[in-house]
């Protein structure tokens, strides 16, 4: 799992905090779809309303591709929030684009992959957020079923929990992100957004999300 330089990673973490795309609430946990309690919630769809931040994200993805020598024929977006960022990146790089649905359509051609999927091509997939990595793994499988290869997954933000790392290791696909949870906490501390007790709680969740969730059920 690779992120950008410290300067760019910290700058984007500040952006996400300031526009409210990432919320920290260790004293009033959020409930994820999985039922897991978490002191952090990320909604990178909020970046869509901020052209300057969208542009920095796009250029960050370009930097990741160039600095890691990632070749690709197609840019793909993972539904739903990865799709617009994939579109901007594909336009910037003048590449064909596709997107991967969460599930195949129940009508028409019943496609799960929409757009330009060419056999024996290399695809870079775009996620807005990586938590466990399961949505990425499903998209990788769908692309391979179509006869193409995923060369990498790029994401705006990752919680960087162990389960995600294992998911990508098992898939044999590298993950590159613009910023991550440890960087976010560091930026929040420097800006005075959280106190020492909150820092301890946030780091406790990062060390063991399931144990933290169980301790904060009420």
Give an overview in words.
Helix 4 (134-145) packs parallel to helix 5 (162-171). The model has no long low-confidence stretch (mean pLDDT 92). The chain has helices at residues 6-18, 51-67, 82-93, 134-145, 162-171, 181-190, 196-207, 209-215; strands spanning 2-3, 22-24, 30-31, 37-38, 40-42, 74-78, 97-100, 113-115, 122-130, 149-158, 175-180. The chain has eight helices and eleven strands. It is globular, with a radius of gyration of 17 Å. Strand 6 (74-78), helix 3 and strand 7 (97-100) form a beta-alpha-beta unit. The chain has a seven-stranded mixed sheet, with helices on both faces. A two-stranded antiparallel ribbon has the order 2-5. A two-stranded antiparallel sheet has the order 3-4. It has one domain: 3-Layer(aba) Sandwich (Rossmann fold). It has 218 residues and is an alpha/beta fold.
